[in-house]
Structures are given as structure tokens and as C-alpha cells.
Design goal:
Elements (H helix, E strand, L loop, with lengths): L1 H20 L16 H5 L7 H19 L4 H19 L14 H4 L1 H24 L5 H26 L7
Helix pairs in contact: 1-3, 3-4, 4-6, 6-7
């Protein structure tokens, strides 16, 4: 338990560090903006209380905003997916429910489940973030292009990160 809390604290700061110092400086023609920091919210254990998910999402967004000068846009988007996460997990719950030892990772839940789960939440995050950023409806096709392309690129980073940094499941 203490080891999981320590891992989550370390991953919180590492993801903020990578987002602020590396990924915020990557933009491909203004349409692809990767946001890897959402991985922290996605990988919180299934049994994390909803209030804690919301608080951690808010805190994560505040930290990214503070270092990115984005004035609450990341906070709003991260808090929104923190709010939506329990409902998405409820809809995607297996028939037998979630195992207490499992986490929402590719290793524990499988590729199809993870792509659906993270794809929905990443798309919601990007939708809120880019609409707050532009805040106009006359550029709707440009916004949807940014949402789609950034979501695809972020999903590629999430899957790559899962394979590189999440340990393989031990075989019995």
C-alpha cells in the first residue's frame, strides 16, 4: 500500500516534469499537442475514492497550468475527466466487477479495454481543453481536427508508456 502511494507520488511529479519541459514544446503545425499527464488520472487504482480522484485531477491540472501559463485550461480539462472517470469505469465494468489487485493498465485489463477506456477519457479531455482554448464555434472543423489528431498522438504515447514502464504480469 505504501509502495503504491509512493509510486503514484513519483509518477505525479515525473508526468508533470515531462509534460512541462518536453511535451509542451512539441507542436506539429499547431494541430498535434500531446498531453501525457492525463496518464496519472487514467492509472489511478479502481478503488480510489471519487473525491480523491477529483482532488488529484484538480491538483494535477493546477501544476501543469502553473508551469504552462495556460490559466486554468488544464485544470478544467483534468478535473472534468476526473469527474467522468468513475462513470466510464462503471459502464466498462466486467461482469464480475474489477479485481482489487487490478489497475486500469494494458497489462491487467487488456489492450481493447484500455484503448476504449483511455480513448474516451483522452477525447473528453482534449474536447474540453481545446474548446476552452479557442472558445469560438466558427472554427469548429479546426477544433475537431486538433481534438482528433492530438487524441491519436496522445493515445500512441500512452500505449508506448504502458509498454515501456509498466512491468509485465507475472505468470503463475
Amino acid at each position: 500500500m505504501a509502495l503504491d502511494i509512493f509510486r503514484n507520488i513519483v509518477s505525479f511529479f515525473i508526468l508533470i516534469f515531462v509534460q512541462v519541459l518536453v511535451l509542451n514544446n512539441i507542436q506539429f503545425s499547431g494541430y498535434i499537442n500531446p498531453y501525457l499527464y492525463v496518464l496519472f488520472i487514467l492509472m489511478l487504482p479502481f478503488n480510489t475514492p471519487n473525491w480523491l480522484v477529483l482532488f488529484l485531477s484538480f491538483l494535477l491540472g493546477i501544476f501543469v497550468d502553473a508551469f504552462s501559463n495556460s490559466f486554468g485550461m488544464h485544470t478544467a480539462a483534468a478535473t472534468f475527466i476526473g469527474f467522468c472517470r468513475p462513470y466510464i469505469l462503471q459502464v466498462m465494468r466486467p461482469r464480475d466487477g474489477y479485481d482489487n489487485n487490478d489497475k486500469p493498465t494494458i497489462r491487467d485489463m487488456g489492450m481493447n479495454w484500455y484503448l476504449t477506456y483511455s480513448g474516451i477519457l483522452v477525447a473528453l479531455h482534449h474536447f474540453v481543453y481545446f474548446y476552452i482554448e479557442v472558445f469560438r464555434f466558427n472554427e469548429i472543423f479546426a477544433i475537431f481536427s486538433r481534438i482528433f489528431l492530438s487524441s491519436v498522438f496522445t493515445m500512441l504515447l500512452l500505449v508506448l508508456t504502458q509498454y515501456l514502464f509498466v512491468a509485465e504480469k507475472k505468470k503463475n
